[in-house]
Amino acid sequence: MLKATPPSGSGSAEGLEILRPGIFTSAQDLGRPGQRRWGIPLGGALDRFALMASNLLVGNPVGAAGLEIAGGGLTLQVQRALLLCLGGGDLQASLDGQACPRWVSFRAQAGATLRFGAPRSGFRAYLAVAGGLALPSVLGSRSPAPGESGRLQAGERLAVGPAGPARPGRGLRRALWPDQDGPALLRVLPGPGAERELWALRDAVLTVHPDSNRMGLRLRGSPLGEAPGTLPSLPVAPGGIQQPPGGELIALLADGQTLGGYRLLGQIISADQSALGQLRPGQEVLLAQSSLSEARQLAAERRLALRQLAAELGIPPGQSGLDSALL
Amino acid sequence: MEAYRVTEFEDHLLLLFGTTPREDLLGVIQGLAAELNRLPPPGLLEAVAGLTSLALYFDPAETAGPPLLAYLSGLRPRPLEAGRTHRLAVCYAPPHSPDLPWVADYLGLSPAQLVELHQSSLHRVDLIGFLPGFAYLSGWPAPQPVPRLPRPRTEVTSGSVGVAGMQTGLYPGRSPGGWRIIGRTPQRLLWLDREQPGLLQPGDRVQMVAISADAFERQC
Q: Per residue in B128-177, pLDDT tens?
């Protein structure tokens, strides 16, 4: 797990100041793997690829803490000159009134204002800051402590750690930009005894319900009808698709609970979980059955793309955080 | 070894031992989980016990389903005896027990009889989860299942001891909650600065020890 160094010596805790928090902005890293037996959810960025790629572009290890800006409306002030990168959804960000580029590092001067509008594609933007947000680590992560929303408020100031030698203008190849337009296609591995149900969902157009949060997305439009009721609690994980009574489906996200008492229809493959984290209320979703071999192939491709990016940027494997494979 | 059905995902295995909870089965599952977490094979992150299920979370770069299943088949679980027994001080007096009179009345007991029944039982930790550190305990002989609150409280104080169905639930932190609160423990159940954040693990036993409201204040 990444252990960034808190700001030292100078006593300067300056970095970013939240002027307007927007819909829901929180500081996130890659969360707390391996603590589910204590009831501790994974947590961390919902679009892990966006946070990891943005971090690399500013010279950070992939797991440095950045901002997850959900739904837009955030305004923040840059308190000292910082190297930044925006990834994830297009939330019409502007820096001092100028449209702000995505997936490329840029320098913001002290006093600059970064403003986010409404989502044009995707739902969550990620702001990586060279040096990472210097927040206290709780159970190995700088994401909000378990059980806390971590929603940032106007006036909050976020300190930034010491930055490496990265430069502005380093970008992500266009071929690696996620496609966030149109209906989302999520590939799913079937849950125990749920092959038939998953097959029955193949033609369904599901819709993301507004009553969704970082714990789970509610999906409407399932043709499966009423579920058989509750089952003995079983361990569940982010990406799990549950069928509670009542006809809606729930796709579990990073803050989702560790145990569930509903039928588990399947598990969204890891390569598609970033897309899951970018769904916005009202968006249409299609599910398709996948296989372990396909899921592993796609995960390997994504991991390779991040390794190549780190290599292009001259970040040594030991410093990229990519050797810890829990991505 | 109990029969189970395996579902393999990218980074975890889900083992289903049927869908009917049984005390002896729970013991086997908890014994396996405890053993796997005590001595994890290479690449295993952790094992998490359900009521009739067991999940093995692993790092797919280091291991995969088949070697983990092979390792599992060589394990001899040591059921329940592996668990520790905790004595948990609980204040069943006001203001820490807002639902105790209702629950006693519902079960046809006096409040004193309810407290005696609850604290004289040896409870077992069935599950940890739902909320960070939330413990589901079974083992107290409620005369009948206790219904949850029709509308969950928006805030339950930390350490609250609730009952629902035939179970007892321990709330480690402040949270919303629908269980009926019959007491509160001054004992901390969750530490966010420890490597093992929770006091309780599945399979542990819990003996409640009734304390007065004054004693609660002193121990807080």
A: 998 899 999 999 999 999 999 988 898 999 999 999 999 999 999 988 88
Q: Measure Cα distances from A38 to A69, A211, A235, B23, B134 in Å.
A: 28, 27, 12, 21, 8
- Where do runs of H (alpha helix) occur along chain A? 48-57, 195-200, 273-277, 292-312, 317-320
A39 to B46: CB separation less than 8 angstroms, yes or no: no
Homologous superfamily, domain A184-290? Cyclophilin-like (2.40.100.10)
Alpha-carbon gap: B208 to the closest alpha carbon of chain A (Å)? 21
Q: Note whether A189 contacts B: Cβ–Cβ < 8 A.
A: yes
Q: Chain A: nearest CA to B110, how far in angstroms?
A: 32
pLDDT > 50? residue A5: no
Q: What is the pLDDT of residues B40-70, one digit of tens each?
A: 999 999 999 999 999 999 999 899 999 999 9
Give domain limits for chain A: 15-179+303-320, 184-290
pLDDT reading at A249 higher than 60:
yes
The answer to whether A231 faces chain B, any CB pair under 8 Å, is: yes
Q: Where are the beta strands (DSSP E) in chain A?
A: 15-21, 24-28, 66-70, 74-78, 82-90, 94-95, 98-99, 105-108, 113-115, 121-129, 157-159, 184-190, 206-208, 216-220, 234-235, 240-243, 249-252, 259-260, 263-268, 284-289
